[in-house]
Design goal:
The complex is a heterodimer of chains A (268) and B (264). Chain A contains ten helices and no strands. Chain A has 268 residues and is mainly alpha-helical. Chain A is flat. Classes of the chains: A mainly alpha (268), B mainly alpha (264). At the A-B interface, α1, α4, α5, α8 and α9 of A face α1, α4, α5, α8 and α9 of B.
């Protein structure tokens, strides 16, 4: 009887999987019919899926019309993002931990941080351009800003949420202040810190695209803004889908790392 | 670990906050006055003066600072309301009905990872540079966040509670409105919090790429005229409004779902 139950559950699952596949197929079919067969929308505003796919294939090796191939744009975006992100994480996490643990640091840094926190990084783009020019530096600093803020916030509240009992236990066993920080508070803050890093990844990616849209000479954001000025929406869609893909891949890598390093903490 | 309110502690923390803020302002002023940074950046006093001046005098052709803010806020409000409506409906439907989930989840997963800012060029090609394009961008920014959260909430409805409701004779509709919806509300609010701040960011980006009014436009206009003071006024106004929106949202959550306060 039990196996029967499992079998029906499996069948149910299979059924829904088939429906999922069908739904994507229907979506593509409707898109194809609407654009290529019935031509409901002009091809400059909505190209057919076939054309988008072809553009994707040709963009892999051709430089027209924006001066670089897709992999090149891809690498240049990723490079800037990584630079700013790593810098932000390396500075933000320790600063957040220090703010959470040491009262004096908290009292001095907190008000300054509260001033900076509500500024959306996108609003800083013009300042960055004026100060640093249209360079990799401007974008890296921008991404640094959008990474550092969620990192600090989350590390701070992670440290603050350390269970008082755990601290008491370590105190009873004679741990020094530093030992308590590194062996009790920091590990128990790890899930929060990782959540912050995850948020930071999303917001830094968004800031990067905005920066590339406004002023740059390479990168995926630049690709889609060129697509706009040439009215090549197939190019824009290719760019957007690539941005989405990278996001998925980065999130997957992130999940792997998190699984490897963070133990427990999910059972709150 | 909750700090009790005592006057001494309050005065103490106020003192330290003042030290921090004053230190930043002094460093800023000194940096501008005595180093080469001064060629680029305005002093805090100049920014303050300009902010007060633009309250009553127009930036650009006709709009004062407050009017620009109002234009941006109206866009955000329209886009956010639409996205909240669609997001909550889709999220709950996907979380509660297997069929809807099977149909819409893969399509939604296609849209979800795309940064909302990346929609700007496509929105401009589709809808021109008018209001529709901006509202579409804001809609996409809020929609994704709200749907993800609502979906997670609808998935986590306690089946036992549903069972109890059914056993006590509630029909499907009653169970839905009295059990499912209330237990989703905290998640919906979490989504709306994030959604609103992303919307505020998206409207900036949209206005910076193409527009003729709005708070994002004042920044880009400042950049084009080489007017750093105007850029700083814009940034500070944006930060203050963003903060107010977040506070308002948190207050609304506290009032509307007082039975369950998040983050306790």
């Amino acid at each position: 009887m039990n196996t029967e139950k499992i079998n029906t559950a499996k069948k149910q699952k299979r059924k829904y999987q088939i429906i999922s596949v069908l739904s994507v197929c229907v979506f593509l079919l409707v898109w194809y019919l609407a654009t290529a067969v019935f031509e409901l929308a002009p091809s400059y505003s909505l190209p057919s899926p076939v054309k988008v796919f072809n553009t994707f294939l040709t963009k892999l090796h051709s430089k027209a019309p924006d001066g670089a191939t897709l992999p090149k744009h891809f690498i240049s975006s990723l490079q800037v993002a990584m630079l700013g992100y790593l810098l932000g994480a390396v500075i933000g996490v320790p600063l957040g931990i220090a703010m959470g643990w040491f009262k004096t640091v908290d009292k001095i840094v907190r008000p300054v941080f509260d001033l900076i926190k509500p500024i959306p990084p996108i609003a800083l783009i013009p300042v960055m351009i004026v100060v640093f020019g249209i360079s990799i530096k401007a974008k890296a600093v921008l991404i640094f800003f959008s990474t550092v803020i969620p990192c600090i916030t989350n590390s701070y509240s992670g440290i603050r949420q350390t269970k008082q009992i755990h601290l008491w236990v370590s105190q009873t066993f004679g741990a020094s202040n530093m030992q308590m920080l590194f062996t009790v508070a920091s590990p128990s803050a790890l899930p929060m810190i990782f959540a912050g890093l995850r948020v930071a990844m999303g917001s830094s990616w968004m800031a990067l695209v905005a920066a590339e849209l406004l002023a740059s000479t390479s990168g995926l954001g630049y690709l889609i803004s060129i697509g706009r000025s040439l009215l090549r929406s197939d190019l824009i869609i290719v760019g957007i889908l690539c941005l989405g893909m990278i996001n998925i891949v980065l999130t997957a890598i992130f999940n792997l790392v998190e699984k490897r390093f963070v133990r427990g903490g999910k059972d709150e | 670990m909750k700090a009790k309110f005592n006057t001494k502690g309050f005065v103490n923390s106020l003192f330290f906050s003042l030290i921090g803020i004053v230190a930043v302002l002094i460093l800023w002023t000194l940096g501008v006055n005595y180093t080469t940074v001064g060629l680029l950046l305005p002093t805090p006093m100049e920014v303050l003066e300009r902010a007060i001046y633009t309250m009553s005098n127009p930036i650009g052709r006709t709009n004062t600072l407050l009017m620009h803010l109002a234009v941006s806020l109206r866009r955000v409000l329209v886009g956010f309301t639409l996205s909240a409506l669609c997001g909550v409906i889709l999220g709950i439907a996907m979380g509660r009905f297997k069929m809807v989930e099977a149909i819409f989840k893969p399509l939604f997963e296609l849209v979800r990872p795309i940064p909302s800012v990346a929609w700007i060029p496509l929105a401009i090609v589709w809808f021109g540079i008018g209001e529709t394009a901006k509202i579409y961008i804001i809609f996409m920014a809020g929609f994704v966040n709200i749907t993800v959260n609502t979906y997670a909430g609808a998935k986590q409805v306690d089946e036992n509670m549903l069972g109890v409701a059914r056993m006590l004779g509630a029909n499907e509709l009653q169970a839905f409105f009295h059990v499912v919806i209330p237990s989703c509300v905290p998640y919906i609010f979490a989504g709306m919090q994030v959604g609103l701040s992303t919307c505020w960011m998206a409207v900036l980006a949209a206005e910076m790429v193409s527009s003729t009014e709005g708070i994002g436009w004042t920044i880009t206009a400042g950049q084009e005229n080489g007017d750093m003071t105007q850029i700083f006024v814009g940034i500070i106004a944006i930060a203050i409004v963003g903060l107010l929106l977040a506070v308002l949202m948190r207050w609304a959550e506290r009032v509307l779902c007082s039975w369950r306060v998040r983050g306790k």
